Each structure stands twice: as C-alpha cells, then as structure tokens.
Amino acid sequence: MSELQLKVLELLKEDARRAPELIATMLDVTEEEVKDAIAALEQDHVIVKYATVVNWSKVDNDKVTALIEVQITPERGRGFEGIAERIYLYPEVKSVYLMSGAYDLLVEVEGKSLRQVANFVSDKLSPIDAVLSTKTFFILKKYKQDGIIFEEDEGDHRLMVSP
C-alpha cells in the first residue's frame, strides 16, 4: 500500500464525504491521483463501505445493544472461523471479534428490546454445539464511538476555590 493510499484512508476515515478535489488539495497531489487511489482501495476491498456514525440517543429509537463474551471450542481444521461465520450470519449480529484473554469471541448484537436480545442468546447463540458459555452486557449509554464524542461538553460549572 502506498503512502498516498494511507493518507487518503486517514482523511476518508475522518470524513467519508470529503471530495477527491479537497483531498488532493490537502495532500498536494492531483485529483486524478486521489481518484485512482480510492478506486484501487475499493477494488482491493480495503475500503469496504462508506458509513454514517449516528448518535442514536438523539433519535426516538429504542434499540438495545449488547456485547456478548462467548467461549467456544474451536473446530478441527477451521479453528474459530466456522463458528464465527455461523454467528455473524444472524441479522441481529452487528460485529464479531476474535479476542485474546478469558473468552474467544466478542459479539455485538442489536435488538428492539432486552427480551429480543435475551432470546437471541438463549435460542440461537447458546445452542450452538461449540459454544461453551456466554456472558451478556447491555450497553446503557455510548459516550464515544469511532473517535466521535457524542456528548457536548457543558464546561466546568464548579466554583473556583482559591487559598
């Protein structure tokens, strides 16, 4: 990967709406070089999707998100891949990560209610033969995601204390 491609990735990660013309100006290269870099990154599946980060707490939307620690027995010949694939194909599953430490997979699940997420764990996830145990944590509030701070700084309203 070229240095230009890395710089283009960083700029698009900060704001995916940046136009190639602006990126070219910021990097002091031609617009054509930027377009070629983006096209190559898309073709190589380095850039997979352009997405919007939404602060769902500002929207009247009662989604419930949970993080589930999953301990599994790896499959012979495939390791964790087959089980991870089986889990990430469920529509409720937003992310699956292979982890080091006390558990093997971290699964992010989204549902309309606590009950829906609980049913996913009890009816779909736990019955998988390779799953040894699960531990579910419901997200109560997001303060920061993908480098974006959701809460506006209200400043320090404490009284100043002087000696």
From TrEMBL:
PROSITE patterns reported in the protein's UniProt record: HTH_ASNC_2
InterPro entries: AsnC-type_HTH_dom, Dimeric_a/b-barrel, HTH-Siroheme_Decarb, Tscrpt_reg_AsnC-like, Tscrpt_reg_AsnC/Lrp_C, WH-like_DNA-bd_sf, WH_DNA-bd_sf
SUPFAM superfamilies reported for this sequence: Dimeric alpha+beta barrel (SSF54909), Winged helix' DNA-binding domain (SSF46785)
Record carries keyword Nuclease: no
UniProt entry keywords in alphabetical sequence: DNA-binding, Transcription, Transcription regulation
Entry annotated with the keyword Transcription regulation: yes
Domain HTH asnC-type per the UniProt entry, residue ranges: 1-81
Protein name per the record: Lrp/AsnC family transcriptional regulator
